[in-house]
Amino acid sequence: MTATQPPLTYRDAGVDIDAGNALVDRIKSKVRRSFRPEVMGGLGGFGALFDLSGKYREPVLVSGTDGVGTKLKLAQQWGRHDSIGIDLVGMCVNDVLVQGAEPLFFLDYFATGKLDVEVTAQVVEGIVEGCVRAGCALIGGETAEMPDMYAPGEYDLAGFCVGAVEKSQILDGHAVAAGDVLLGIDSSGPHSNGYSLIRRVLERAGATPDLDLGGLSLGDALMAPTTIYVKPILALIKAHTPHALAHITGGGLLENIIRVVPEGLGLHIDSRSWRLPPVFDWLQREGAIESMELWRTFNCGIGFVVIAKAEDVGAMQATLTAHGLASRVIGEVLPSTDNHRVRID
């Protein structure tokens, strides 16, 4: 160091340790909202502790990790930071749920070029809300401030969930049989899939978030947080006997349900059994999106699917209705002898 050069600090390099500490102080009490009795200790340790003893006889851990994709771009562009954390939790816990597992705890990763305590707190509070809805504990995470890695105002988000299920109660699709029906459960919108295409449609249409879609703005329709299906589906599993479950994410209806269906069987999905929500109708019209492309990109209003015996569906629908979820029969399982295992009409 020469006499004319002042000493450098971490803040000079773009990392504000004090801002990070202020964020932790702000969110600590809110994060406790999500804690379960099994959580040991609190935030701030090098590792998070969760006591699994006494809850399961033969526990199998089920893990999942995901992000929010380019829906983050709209959140940042439109200043919608308060619910994107719900999306993050939803994309992880709904995947873990497919195996019949109860999500137990969640960890998040938030990265940005320059930490904005207000924005980051909004995001984390959304993650807490998502965990509360899922019944899992936010027991740890990482906030990384990395100058020069992100443009001003940008951040990235990822999460990791661990759940557990009794070994004898794992849902792996082996019970699915011809004649089973597909019970589709409503989504809240596109959830967190297909947003690279959505943003291209927005650009082509020159649409603004205040565009009216018949009582709901385009911005509200596109930023509606992912439905978290955990508590209703766990109640359904406890009361009934589903053969398989599917979370409709990237790949849409065309590619997700078939993932839990054994070889030799196929699916018939009747698109006339539900009305395409206005946001998907707008996207298809403005983007001139062909129907098959729509089905393999978006959930099209169906965010989760239960496969079950036809005689069990009525009781299952009653359970879902009691938990505030609308559902409908959208198709059936059929024998299949060719490579085209999914038919939508």
Low-confidence stretches: none
Question: What sort of overall outline do the alpha carbons produce when their principal axes are compared?
Answer: globular
Q: How many distinct helices? A: 11
Radius of gyration: 22 Å
Q: Calculate the terminal CA-CA distance, rounded to whole Å.
A: 73 Å
**Average pLDDT score:** 92
Major sheet characteristics: 6 strands, mixed
Find the structural class using helix and strand composition: alpha+beta
Order of helices and strands: HEEEHHEHEEEHHHEHEHHEHEE
Number of E strands: 12
Indicate the percent of residues in helices.
25-40%
Residue share in β-strands: 15-25%
Can you list the strand order of the major beta sheet? 8-10-7-11-9-12
Compose a concise summary of this entry:
The protein has eleven helices and twelve strands. The protein has 345 residues and is α+β, with helices and mostly antiparallel strands. The strands form three sheets. Strands 8-10-7-11-9-12 form a six-stranded mixed beta sheet. A four-stranded mixed beta sheet has the order 3-6-4-5, with helices on one face.
